[in-house]
Specification:
mainly alpha, Serine Threonine Protein Phosphatase 5, Tetratricopeptide repeat, two-stranded antiparallel ribbon, SusD-like_N, SusD family protein
Length: 484
């Protein structure tokens, strides 16, 4: 089940791909022609287009994969009925091989497409003549950031993964031990930190990599590696660099998902006016009418065919009679004949503004990779850890997020670590974080359907690798042991 062919997508670069990208005025909604391995990249303008392509490839692979394997697998979404009209994605939470593979959990090829493009950029940059140094540093930083981020997703999903740093590699590559993968991730993020500026133009805010974005992702990397002291310092750098602030008005929280808000650190840009649209299953799986009228999902946007947070989870996150502005913002009802116990995930409902509901190309909302509230809560987690052991400060950062939501201040009681984890579930619902949170904090058995006591050591949290990837590699790539 696990295997990737690293004929490093030589064929990928022999095809001219039409890639659409905005995020920066110099590219506007022009059609970007991807340079190939044959014509390489010969000018600074070619580099700009190639970096744009890398962002576009990431935008194509990340939303669907991370929602399914970062949220649904964590048992935070389920079908309207568990016995009839059950969506196939619901079974991902059972952690059985069929549903995981059938819903793309064994396919890492899209991530390697991003990596191959970044490799092409990084190989080409030193060959460009008369290259403005500030533009050169930015391109170097962005390509390194995107490669590091992509490998971070890969290794959190599949563990040991092939590491390739060449644009075109005709040889199959075996899996690299996780420790070495993380060494490469940290190197890439350090290059990004050294070369990226704290900010660029207003139009690029959050949708292009910056120094703050690289700090934020590296903070997550170090927390994943249980280096909470290092993670806390990087969170401090993000919070105090003057580029980000929480949206204070609770009624305006949806601005986060419209995109480029004051608390956005890194997100995937979607804008119909700039032709950055695709049939994004995150949206059509979680939103019904009036946002979707298309019937290709089998239900025409009706609630029976939606994935929704289970009622028990909603009650756990937002107990009856407690005040929390996120309940009415993150979750919403919208049809007259709607079951009020099954609210939609409403974070992305701003997509109706310019979207095409008949084709489901309505993804006007941005997909958040990381934002300030995430980093504040990650800092709280680090401060509350036994390694750092500064619980009073952890409570301060926890309460900053709770205060914005008009939720009751936390003072004491129960486990502080569990309280922070629950806060992350409430704040980041539907943003692809929670499964990673459960694994990082070793709480997976307590909150998901992966309940075996040795889930971590046995690798039950890792995804299987598809048989196609295994066989294409000539079985140089081997299956994760839990799935053998």
């Amino acid at each position: 089940m696990n295997r990737n062919n690293f004929k490093k997508i030589a064929s990928l670069f022999l095809i001219y791909s039409l890639v659409l990208f905005s995020c920066q005025k110099v590219l506007d909604p022009e059609v970007v022609q991807l340079p190939t391995a044959d014509n390489a990249i010969q000018t600074a303008a070619d580099v700009d287009k190639a970096v744009a392509a890398a962002y576009s490839f990431l935008r194509s692979v990340l939303p669907d994969k991370v929602f399914l394997m970062g949220d649904v697998r964590a048992n935070t979404f389920e079908s309207y009925s568990q016995t009839s009209n059950t969506r196939p994605e619901t079974l991902i939470a059972t952690n059985t091989i069929g549903p995981l593979l059938n819903n793309g959990g064994g396919d890492w090829s899209g991530f390697y497409k991003v990596i191959a493009q970044c490799n092409l950029v990084l190989e080409s940059i030193p060959t460009i003549q008369n290259y403005d140094q500030s533009a050169k540093r930015r391109s170097l930083g962005e390509a390194s950031f995107l490669r590091g981020l992509t490998y971070f997703y890969l290794t959190r999903f599949w563990g040991d993964v092939p590491v390739n740093l060449k644009a075109v590699d005709v040889d199959n590559i075996s899996r690299t031990p996780q420790a070495q993968v993380y060494d490469q991730i940290k190197k890439d993020l350090d290059v990004a930190i050294a070369n990226l500026a704290p900010s660029y133009s207003a139009g690029d805010k959050a949708v292009r990599a910056t120094k703050g974005a690289a700090w934020a992702i590296k903070a997550h990397v170090l927390a994943w590696l249980q280096d909470y002291a290092g993670s806390e310092k990087l969170c401090d750098s993000v919070i105090n660099n003057g580029q980000y602030s929480l949206i204070a008005d609770t009624t305006q929280l949806l601005r986060i998902f419209i995109g480029k808000s004051q608390e956005g650190i890194f997100e995937l840009n979607f804008d119909a006016a700039l032709k950055e649209v695709q049939k994004n299953k995150v949206y059509n799986r979680t939103l019904g009418r009036p946002w979707y009228t298309d019937g290709s999902d089998g239900g025409g946007g009706t609630e029976k065919f939606l994935l929704c947070p289970p009622p028990a989870l909603i009650t756990q996150m937002f107990p009856v009679k407690t005040v929390d502005g996120r309940k009415s913002t993150w979750l919403t009802n919208s049809s007259k004949n709607y079951d009020p116990t099954r609210p939609y995930l409403g974070k992305y409902r701003t997509l109706q503004v310019q979207g095409d509901t008949t084709s489901q190309n309505i993804n006007e909302s941005n997909i958040i990779v990381t934002r300030l509230a995430d980093i504040m809560l990650l800092r709280a987690e680090a401060l509350a850890s036994t390694q750092v052991n500064r619980p009073a400060e952890a409570i301060i950062w926890l309460n900053k997020v709770r205060e914005r939501a008009k939720a009751r201040e936390y003072t004491s009681g129960g486990s502080l670590q569990d309280t922070i984890l629950l806060e992350r579930r409430k704040e980041l619902l539907g943003e692809g974080q929670i499964f990673f949170d459960y694994v990082r904090t070793r709480k997976l058995a307590a909150y998901s359907k992966i309940t075996q006591a040795d889930w971590y050591t046995k690798g039950a949290w890792l995804l299987p690798i598809s048989q196609t990837i295994l066989s294409q590699s000539g079985f140089i790539i081997t299956q994760n042991s839990f799935w053998q």
